[in-house]
Amino acid sequence: xxxxxEYAGNLHVHTTYSDGTGMxxxxxxxxxxxxxxxxxxxxxxxxxSGVEGYYYGQSREERVLLLVGEEIHDARRDSQANHMLVYGxxxxxxxxxxNPQRLIDEANKQDGFCYLAHPIERAAPLFNEGAxxxxxxxxxxxxxxxxxxxxxxxxxxxxxxxxAVRAAFNPEKxxxxxxxxxxxxxxxxxxxxxxxxxxxxxxxxxxxxSMGPLTKVVFPYDYLFRCVNTHxxxxxxxxxxxxxxxxxxxxxxxxxxxxxxxxxxxxxQGFRFIAQGHNTNVVMGEWIRLGQGVxxxxxxxxxxxxxxxxxxxxxxxxxxxxxxxxxxxQPGIYRVEAYTHYQGKSRGWIFSNPIFII
Length: 358
Fold this sequence. Notes:
Elements: E1 5-13, H1 24-34, E2 38-41, E3 53-56, E4 63-68, E5 70-72, E6 84-87, H2 100-109, E7 113-116, E8 144-149, H3 150-155, H4 161-169, H5 180-191, E9 197-201, E10 208-211, E11 214-217, H6 221-224, E12 228-234, H7 242-255, E13 258-262, E14 272-277, E15 280-283, E16 287-288, E17 294-310, E18 313-328, E19 332-342, E20 345-352, E21 355-357
Parallel strand pairs: 1-2, 2-4, 7-8, 8-9, 16-21
Antiparallel strand pairs: 1-12, 3-4, 5-6, 6-7, 10-11, 12-13, 13-20, 14-15, 14-17, 17-18, 17-19, 19-20, 19-21
């Protein structure tokens, strides 16, 4: 059995270099408080140099790896759209924002990779918040899409001032999972033959609002880092060496060796989805030959509703279980969804990247 190491991180964060309210050190300390292993800052149209590395809490054991990416978009575009998260390029690429395919190509040339940010989004006109979807689909070479963006989902509940107050003070009562349209989009892209990976993120800004003499930070970094995260699997452990650990994290995200977890209702740490074939086994993001059949194993950290999907169709469903085994005798794209009951309703909890059986 292949030994893997699991690490949790958040991949969509803004600082004072764009429209966030904290510095990189603030983001790192919040990530440590939330128990994350890594965090990637993605300021709008600016790649900040000199801030990557390990940051420490009160002891050397309390640490987080902070990396820098970028959320790039054409700021001159009337009616915003097409925001792209670029990771691993290590240089400024916003000059290519007006041409998404050129941007993807340039990122790939720099050994970077791209995820499309909040590809499906809804507007909140009452608060002058427009939708920022992805519209340019005549592209190739990108790694994946942001399946679940916490603040983007929250935005869809701001239909009135009353609803906004309710969502701001009790977000756990409204947040329920990725948009169904985004899941459907993902499935459609994979049916078209695209190997599309997914991530989940906070889109954290730690925005502060003032009312008279009072100022309150709404959705601080540390709170959001306890919500929707991306958990990666690596074949080697993080050791504290910045250069090697950076490569491990970015490679896992590039390959889709990861899953999206809503960690607020219950920790998703320990989820596993693996495939075993003849003398081999693989994890999410990898492929395996069908041969005489492939055994798929699913393990969730606590009792939940488990769904195994093949090419977008449910082939196994268990309403209350912690593990299931399924013998796959057909090639296809297999992935897992898990749902947990929280605050009076079923919530999306875990969304795995696929295992490809060929």
